[in-house]
Amino acid sequence: MTTISLKFSSAIQSKKSMPYLLILPAIIVILGVVLVPLLFSFYTSFTPFKLTKPDSLFVFIGFKNYIRIFSDMAFWEAFGRTVLFLAVVINLEFLLGLGIALMINKITHGQRVLRTIMMFPMMFSPILVGFQFKFIFNDNIGILNNALQSLGVTDQAIAWLVDRWLAFGAISFAEIWMSTSIFAILLLAGLFSMPQEPLEAAQVDGCNSWQIFKHITLPFIMPFAFIAMTIRSLDVARAYDIVDVMTGGGPAGRTELLWTMIARTGFDNANMGRANAMAYVSIILSILFTYYFFRKIIAARKAMGGDA
Amino acid sequence: MKKFKKIANWLATFAVMLIICIPGLWVVLSAFRPNREILAKPAVWIPEYLSFDNFYAIFGGGKALIAIPVPAYFINSIVIASTSTFVAIVIGMSGGYAFARFRFKFKNSIFLGLMLSRTVPGIALSLPLFMIWGRIGLIDTKMGMIIVYTALNIPFTIWLIDGFFRQIPKELSEAGQVDGCTRWQAFWKIEFPLAKSGIASAAIFAFLTSWNEYALASNLTRSTDSKTLPVGLMDFTAQFTIDWAGMSAMAVIIIVPALILTFIVQKHLISGLTFGGVKG
Questions:
Q1: Least CA distance to B215: which residue of chain A?
Q2: How many domains does the structure of chain B reveal?
Q3: N or C end of chain B: which has fewer CB within 10 A?
């Protein structure tokens, strides 16, 4: 015992092990709550485990779950819809965020107030955003249909959350409403921190405003866009909350995303083995996504002369 | 021409702000209206009757359309969010300080590993946690949720606190140590007070993450013992009739604390995110 405690106290004193001791608690918690459960679910994805049949946890069936989901059209439909959804919302959020940042940057008075208003959607929990748009897009009592009918645009109630593509649009709108601010705020911070001399020099040299934007402004603020994208990529799966409230993946799977499909397979149908196999597909999707943007941030950090 | 551009810019900005504000304001307004007015056909645009009845109803007074134990959910949310925030900040401070002040082997890989743990979708993590928590008796307990949210908050807390410590020149604590402080004293007396407001905002972020989380909570909680407000909000949709007024009132109860906290941190939000990310 004494040798252990001696070793321990000398380890504390030695400068080399200090940083490891400081990060140890974080690593223990992450191991216990994230890594070990994920290893367990990785194992489960090779069993036919059903919550209703505890013994099935010990039956090894190899890649059967994966083969089963990869040959399931409903899975590919949900997967395709998820990828399309991410591509649409992230690109639109970036473009709209850039537009809003440029607009606010031009305004001379009241920037602070505008920035504060922009933070508004960021405080909303995804579940509230979902509820809010479920309310707005409701075909019977929603403000949108009520407005369209009062204005005489249509006398029919439009079934926003029932039609496949209208519902996709409504859900994307909710997601974009929630997250565009992150891009706008970070890009605005980038614009504020931009040095003015290169802009003036370019003007003197006769560049037009599009050339200045493309060759000076945009490269300067791109690292800020990458930060926003990294932050976003950390929580893309929050779309689960929105879809769960707005449509629950229905009607008849028409708005099913990968994440709602995992919940349905695992919890509603108690088919944990197959749900875990799907979950791994979603995890790999998220990790690739984040890793890509994280590399970009590291590169941007180096380019700006920081030490990574 | 220049003036025209300016006006166009101003109008476009105004339109954007309207799109941001109207949905939220509509929910707030509905929280004060009776269901019969919300459901009226043709639509009633100008509220004729505003009251606190919906709030009164969801807190157990008066007659609610669907009885939901909102006060219990509220207490669960407060207990779970604040405890997990406190633990995450203590652990995150120690970790963030290590990343900001030391050079060590595998530093970048450990940092990347921690961040990647955050990318795991909540719903994917909820499956194994449901199985394990079920076996060790943590399902539907506040303790179970506190542990999960602590882990959820650690990566981002480390990222932010790392950034705040990097803003403080190393030389300050070195000077303190030359003057006879131990490293520990130098930390508490010099570096911590300077990073304090940054750490406070990291705490608010962690609190908001736990306060707003749904995917994990909806699958790991099931009764008034541990259900949080976002999960409770879904109680309203369990039936065929949706109590829009009650749901709006509950939405207001969820949003108000978040609103206040975000206004407090908004200055640090931007500096924290960009500094921790870009300048390194």
A1: A241
A2: 2
A3: N
3-state SS assignment for residue A53: strand
Q: Could B124 and A41 be called an inter-chain contact, meaning their C-beta atoms sit closer than 8 Å?
A: yes
The count of CB pairs under 8 A between chains A and B is 279
Q: Specify the higher pLDDT residue, B67 or B222.
A: B222
Backbone angles phi, psi at A53, to 5 degrees: -125, 85
The reply to whether B258 touches chain A by the CB within 8 Å rule is yes
Q: Which residue has the tokens 């590169």?
A: A299
B92 and B228 co-located in one domain: yes
Q: How far apart are CA B51 and CA A141, in angstroms?
A: 20
Domain that holds residue B218: 70-279
Residues in chain B: 280
Say whether both B43 and B142 belong to one domain.
Answer: no
Domains with residue ranges and CATH for chain A: 64-303 (1.10.3720.10)
Q: Which of residues 126-185 of A touch B (CB under 8 A)?
A: 126-128, 131-133, 135-136, 140-141, 143, 146, 149-150, 177, 181, 185
- Mark whether B122 and B222 lie in a shared domain: yes
Instruction: Of A20-24, A219-223, B26-30, B95-99, give the lowest mean pLDDT range.
Output: A219-223
Query: Among residues 248-307 of chain A, which lie with CB inside 8 Å of chain B?
Result: 259, 262-263, 266-267, 272, 275-276, 279-280, 282-283, 286-287, 289-291, 294, 297, 300-301, 304, 306-307
Residue A11: predicted pLDDT: 47
d(CA B58, CA A207): 62
A186–chain B nearest CA distance, Å? 7
Decide if A116 and B263 are in contact by the 8 Å CB cutoff: yes
If asked whether residues B46 and B123 sit together in one domain, one would say no
Residue length of chain A: 308
pLDDT category of residue B190 using cuts at 50, 70 and 90: confident
Residue A50 has phi, psi (to 5 degrees) of: -120, 140
The strand pairing partners of A50, in sequence order, are A53
The verdict on residue B64 lying in a domain is: no
